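Quick log. Single chain, no ligands specified.
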Amino acid sequence: MREQLVAKLVIAGAGVAVFLTGVRTEIVYLRWIGIGLVAVAFLLRFLGRRDAGGAPPSEPVSRP
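-> predicted structure:
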């Protein structure tokens, strides 16, 4: 798996865990932290894909 995908999954999983902990313990700020972590994981999907050198991906080659 790509590192960016693993990072998104870990952040989203941590967000859900923190949110559920906040619900169970009735601590409001934990719920908001969990919501924020899930939002960050969601926003990471809009980052551009980069290759190993850090350059944006080149145009796909069309085959006849």
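The chain has two helices and no strands.
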